[in-house]
Specification:
- Keywords: DNA replication.
- Residues 3-68 form the DNA-directed DNA polymerase family A palm domain.
- It comes from Pyxicephalus adspersus.
- It holds the Pfam family DNA_pol_A.
- This is DNA-directed DNA polymerase family A palm domain-containing protein.
- With 87 residues, the chain is mainly α.
- The protein has 2 domains: 1-52; 54-87, no CATH class.
- Helix content is 69%, strand content 0%.
- The protein has 4 helices and no strands.
- Helix 1 packs antiparallel against helix 2 and helix 2 (27-34) crosses helix 3.
- It is extended.
- The relative contact order is 0.07.
């Protein structure tokens, strides 16, 4: 589909699909958005995650957070009850 042919409805549906996949909506809900079966929705999710390397991005963000935020916090924390933040 060419950019000039994309409608507002197309954009809204694309947003719903992308946010559904990123935030981990279930196969049933996504199949409703796509108008397809739950089996096809699972296949779509897997292809989406591979194509856009969502897992790689997520792992990079988690690693950066741990190295930039959690380590400095660990050095400054004195209360043992706050240790759950470090897990």
């Amino acid at each position: 589909m060419e950019y000039k042919n994309v409608t507002q409805t197309d954009r809204e549906q694309a947003k719903r699909i992308v946010y559904s996949v990123i935030y981990g909506v279930g196969k049933e809900r996504l199949s409703e958005c796509l108008g397809t079966t739950p089996t096809a929705a699972i296949k779509f999710i897997e292809q989406f995650m591979q194509k856009y390397r969502v897992c790689d991005f997520t792992q990079t963000v988690v690693h950066e957070c741990r190295s930039r935020v959690i380590r400095p916090l660990r050095q400054n924390m004195r209360l043992s009850r706050c240790c759950w933040l470090l897990q």
